[in-house]
C-alpha cells in the first residue's frame, strides 16, 4: 500500500516513523513550511520533514492547498505532487492546514486522520490540553475518515488512554503519539488484507471544541478553585506555562498540589511559607507551590525563589508591596 503522509510536529513524526517501520511505502510527505526557531531564529524544518529527508522521501511544503486561495501556485504544485505520488491513502496527523475537497477525494481510500481524543469529545486544535484542563478521566486516539467539517468525520477505530493525576500535556502527548501510530498501522494493515474500513458516524451528543491555547490564558487567576488552577498548570506544561506575578517578575508554576485552606483568606494570599513549599489561598482550597521558574532561569524548587525573593505570610499576590 502506498501511503502519502501529511503532518508537522513530533506527534506526527512518531506516526510517520511507525508507518515506515511497518513497511508501508511512503511516496510523499506534506508538511508546513520551515519556521524560524531557537535564539538565532534560524529557519528550521519540522520534525516530520526532518524524518522524511532521513529516509529520502520527497517533501512538499505548500502554504495552502486551496487552489483558489492566497497561494494558488503552491497549491497547484501540491496537487501535482499528490498526483505523481499515486497514493492509495493520505494519512494526516497534526498537519496544520485545512484540506480542501479536492484533497479529501484524491486518494482511493480517502484521507485518514489521527486525532488526539475520543471523538466527538474535544474536536479542534488542542484536544490533549483541554482534556487535562477539564479534568477528564480518560482520553484516547481516534482514527477518522476526514470530511469537510472540523473533526466531524466518521470514526474507523478508537482506543482509550487513562489520564493520570500527574499527567502534563507533555507526558500525555507522548503516550498518545505512540498509540496513534500503532492504531493507524493496525487500520492500514487490515485494509491491506482486504478488510473494509467500516466507519461509524459520530454521535451528535457530547461534542466539545478544543480551542487553540492562547498565551493570555497562562496567567493564573487565584480566585478560581485550586483544583482547576492545578489542572490548568499541567495542561499548559510545556507551553505556554501557568504564570503569576511575584515581586515584579512573571514566574511560571510547574508543580503544585491542592491542600486544604486552614482559615478563610483572600484569594492570592500567601498563607504559609516553609521548606515544603509556598501555600497560596485560592477561590476554593489552596495550592502548595513546589516547582517554579524565574525569567531566564531553569525549573527549580520554590525554596530557591524564596531565598532570592522572600515574602511574608499575609502578602497578597498582585497587591502593592
UniProtKB/TrEMBL annotation:
Residue sites binding (6S)-5,6,7,8-tetrahydrofolate per the record: 117-120
UniProt keyword Acetylation, yes or no: no
Catalytic activity: L-methionyl-tRNA(fMet) + (6R)-10-formyltetrahydrofolate = N-formyl-L-methionyl-tRNA(fMet) + (6S)-5,6,7,8-tetrahydrofolate + H(+)
Keyword Transmembrane applies: no
A GO term from the CC aspect: cytosol
Keywords: Protein biosynthesis, Transferase
Residue span(s) of domain Formyl transferase N-terminal: 1-188
Pfam name, any one: Formyl_trans_C
UniProt superkingdom: Bacteria
Domain called Formyl transferase C-terminal: residue spans: 212-308
Enzyme Commission numbers on file: 2.1.2.9
MF-aspect GO terms: methionyl-tRNA formyltransferase activity
Annotated InterPro entries: Fmt (IPR005794), Formyl_trans_C (IPR005793), Formyl_trans_C_sf (IPR037022), Formyl_transf_N (IPR002376), Formyl_transf_N_sf (IPR036477), Formyl_transferase-like_C_sf (IPR011034), Met-tRNA-FMT_C (IPR044135), Met-tRNA-FMT_N (IPR041711)
Coiled-coil region(s): none
Family, per entry: Belongs to the Fmt family.
NCBIfam families linked: fmt (TIGR00460)
Role summary: Attaches a formyl group to the free amino group of methionyl-tRNA(fMet). The formyl group appears to play a dual role in the initiator identity of N-formylmethionyl-tRNA by promoting its recognition by IF2 and preventing the misappropriation of this tRNA by the elongation apparatus.
Protein name: Methionyl-tRNA formyltransferase
Taxonomy of the source species: Bacteria, Pseudomonadati, Pseudomonadota, Betaproteobacteria, Neisseriales
Gene that this polypeptide is encoded by: fmt
Amino acid at each position: 500500500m502506498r501511503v502519502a503522509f501529511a503532518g508537522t510536529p513530533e506527534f506526527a513524526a512518531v506516526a510517520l516513523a511507525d508507518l515506515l517501520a511497518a513497511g508501508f511505502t511512503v511516496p510523499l510527505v506534506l508538511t508546513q513550511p520551515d519556521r524560524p526557531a531557537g535564539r538565532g531564529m534560524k529557519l528550521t524544518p519540522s520534525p516530520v520533514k526532518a524524518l522524511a529527508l532521513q529516509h529520502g522521501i520527497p517533501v512538499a511544503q505548500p502554504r495552502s492547498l486551496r487552489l483558489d486561495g492566497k497561494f494558488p501556485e503552491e497549491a497547484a504544485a501540491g496537487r501535482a505532487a499528490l498526483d505523481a505520488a499515486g497514493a492509495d491513502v493520505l494519512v494526516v496527523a497534526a498537519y496544520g492546514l485545512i484540506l480542501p475537497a479536492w484533497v479529501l477525494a484524491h486518494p482511493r481510500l480517502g484521507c485518514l486522520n489521527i486525532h488526539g481524543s475520543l471523538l466527538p469529545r474535544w474536536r479542534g486544535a488542542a484536544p490533549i490540553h483541554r482534556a487535562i484542563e477539564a479534568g477528564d478521566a480518560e482520553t484516547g486516539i481516534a482514527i477518522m475518515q476526514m470530511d469537510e467539517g472540523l473533526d466531524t468525520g466518521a470514526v474507523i477505530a478508537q482506543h482509550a488512554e487513562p489520564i493520570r493525576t500527574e499527567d502534563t500535556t507533555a507526558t500525555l502527548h507522548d503516550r498518545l503519539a505512540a498509540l496513534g501510530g500503532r492504531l493507524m498501522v493496525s487500520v492500514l494493515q487490515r485494509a491491506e488484507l482486504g478488510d473494509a474500513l467500516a466507519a461509524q458516524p459520530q454521535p451528535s451528543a457530547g461534542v466539545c471544541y478544543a480551542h487553540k491555547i492562547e498565551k493570555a490564558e497562562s496567567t493564573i487567576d487565584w480566585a478560581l478553585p485550586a483544583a482547576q488552577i492545578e489542572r490548568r498548570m499541567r495542561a499548559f506544561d510545556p507551553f505556554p506555562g501557568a504564570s503569576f506575578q511575584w515581586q515584579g517578575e512573571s514566574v511560571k508554576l510547574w508543580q503544585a498540589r491542592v491542600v486544604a485552606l486552614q482559615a478563610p483568606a483572600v484569594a492570592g494570599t500567601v498563607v504559609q511559607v516553609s521548606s515544603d513549599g509556598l501555600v497560596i489561598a485560592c477561590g476554593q482550597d489552596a495550592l502548595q507551590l513546589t516547582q517554579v521558574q524565574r525569567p531566564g532561569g531553569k525549573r527549580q524548587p520554590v525554596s530557591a525563589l524564596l531565598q532570592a525573593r522572600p515574602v511574608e505570610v499575609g502578602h497578597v499576590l498582585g497587591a502593592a508591596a
